[in-house]
Amino acid sequence: MLTEGVKCADVDEIFNNVSIVCFNYDRCIEIFLKEALITYYKIDEIKSVDLVGRLNIIHPYGSVGHFDVRNERFTPLGGEGCSLRKSVADIRTFNEGLKSASHRAAIADALCDAQTLVFLGFAYHPINMSLLEVDRSSKIQNIFGTAKGMGEPSIKRVSSDLLRILSKQMFQPDKGGIRNLAAVRQMEIEENTSHDFLMRHFRGIT
């Protein structure tokens, strides 16, 4: 999806309009993107690592080591003989994550600047949801998400909670005014796997 319409000559701009908030400690996203760019664009590893390094990816609870071999905190994926102390230096607990003003501000900035939000494999846990609270105007127009294993009542509750924490409301065609212009046009929270969800909404979120 990221590569849609992005030519090799423009690969430096591939992450310009993307931000990721990852609540996991691992670096699977970074490593996958690094390998995917190498395969798709036939670029070398250093170039790919530099591109992924430009991606605005926020780990509220920290990460286990770094994905760039040039970084002093580099920890190979599945590697043995690594320094445990070095690898977990940036790990934060739930409470530490909640108290990190810099991370909360970075998340709020990313959310407010986005027109489309996509939640994949997100359990909508209240503690994690609280980190997504926005108390100012934003550009958010579309909200998509997976809710595998949730029934319709729970999905309705999640949808309502998302609008509340994001300080948004659904668009009302018969109502005008400034607030309605800033309302959410589309919300699709589906009981689906991430793979099936992305295949279904490929065009809608690219």
Description:
By secondary structure, the chain is an alpha/beta fold. It has 2 domains: 1-91, no CATH class; 115-206, no CATH class. 37% of the residues lie in helices and 10% in strands. The protein contains 9 helices and 5 strands. It has helices spanning 28-41, 45-54, 84-87, 94-99, 101-112, 126-130, 152-165, 178-181, 194-200, and strands spanning 19-21, 56-58, 116-119, 142-146, 186-190. The strands form 2 sheets. A 3-stranded parallel sheet has the order 3-4-5, with helices on one face. Helix 1 packs across helix 2 (45-54). The longest helix has 14 residues, at 28-41. The model has no long low-confidence stretch (mean pLDDT 87). It comes from Novosphingobium aerophilum. This is SIR2-like domain-containing protein.
Mean pLDDT: 87
> How much β-strand is present in the residues?
5-15%
Helix content: 25-40%
What class do helices, strands and sheet pairing give? Answer: alpha/beta
Radius of gyration equals 18 Å
Q: What is the strand arrangement across the widest sheet?
A: 3-4-5
Low-confidence stretches: none
The number of distinct β-strands equals 5
Shape: globular
* Sheet with most strands: 3 strands, parallel
End-to-end separation in angstroms reads 6 Å
| Number of continuous helical runs | 9
Please give the domain count: 2
| SSE string | EHHEHHHEHEHHEH
Protein name: SIR2-like domain-containing protein
